[in-house]
Amino acid sequence: MAGAANDPGRDVAQNLERAMTVQPRIDVATMRRALSTAEAVMALNPPESPMVEGYRLFRVSGGDVAWLDMPANTGAYAVFGSHPRCDVKFASGDDVCVRHLVATCCNLGDGGFGLRLMDLQTSIPFFVDDDVPRRSIVVSGPLLVRIGRHVVGGLPVGPRASSRALQVSSCGMSEPPRGLESVSEKAAVEGAAPPAPTEGITTSHRFARGEISHITSVRPVSHIEDMLAPRAKTGYVRLTLQSSERSAAVELPEQALDDGVLLGRADNCLDRGLRAVLSTHISRTHLLLLRDGTEVMALDLCSTNGTRYAGQKVRRVMIPAEGLALTLGPELTLIWHPQT
């Protein structure tokens, strides 16, 4: 049981207060100068194949630039954070988290591709150039955001790189996921942060190369603990988490998978069956369950002890309709039950 020092209600209130008062730590002019620095460095290191479509992701911290190329339509994704295993690394500090962001490519309705950026339930939102705190966005065209004292961006590459206006429906989000209404109500009762007022709104920005970027805010990633359903019913999926000593079954609304559902060990000590199963061998942000079109994927978030499927360490697994079993860390089994 958690004592007064780990009171979850107080922690939620403190996180909400911080989220409401947080401001960008660097200004827009600094952000744009960081982009110029990144472009100059990356111009000396062009992609190996200019015909490979996707995004060139980068991070700028002071004068230091790091980047990677993420092809579209390959299931590739990138994790940003200060953990040594992350794909794009930040220096440790109070302005970023161990695992902070996930970036994936997504297909757009016009036949092009865009970039999706998701915050992993941190207390530090990211900002574009309008100083509005954001948690989850989809962008068509170049992207530039501020996180603490760092700048993160993505430049589309390849012959079909598009900067046309993004239709939210092209990412399966033409309306708020119906399975989440009860979750929003639950969050309001428990004092958690309400949905961002920018959700569903598309804004236009000019970041680089004269292109116009179109950014749509979408619903943020949720912790699996926040998504528990009272019973199985139509429109829900069932998971079982099983260790050598305990097990817990949970049911999640299918629509929540469009936004992403985060599985991991939370900071607060809560006397709940699910948390009891998630041992210290499981990273705080270990796995992301995400639906892209008709496919549901399990994405390992550069976890310390890894994720295994059929005995092999994996980074990404597509979950078939008949279900599967994954091993998280040394002993926790995640069973995705077949849908009936």
Report the sheet-strand fraction.
25-35%
* Mean pLDDT over all positions: 79
Structural class: alpha+beta
Envelope shape: globular
Layout of secondary structure:
Blueprint: H1 8-21, H2 28-43, E1 54-61, E2 64-71, E3 77-81, E4 88-89, E5 101-107, E6 113-119, E7 136-140, E8 143-147, E9 150-157, H3 181-190, E10 202-206, E11 212-217, E12 222-223, E13 236-242, E14 247-253, H4 256-259, E15 261-263, H5 273-277, E16 287-292, E17 295-300, E18 307-309, E19 312-314, E20 316-319, E21 324-328, E22 332-336
Parallel strand pairs: 3-4, 12-15
Antiparallel strand pairs: 1-2, 1-9, 3-5, 5-6, 6-7, 7-11, 8-9, 10-11, 13-14, 13-22, 15-16, 16-17, 17-20, 18-19, 18-21, 21-22
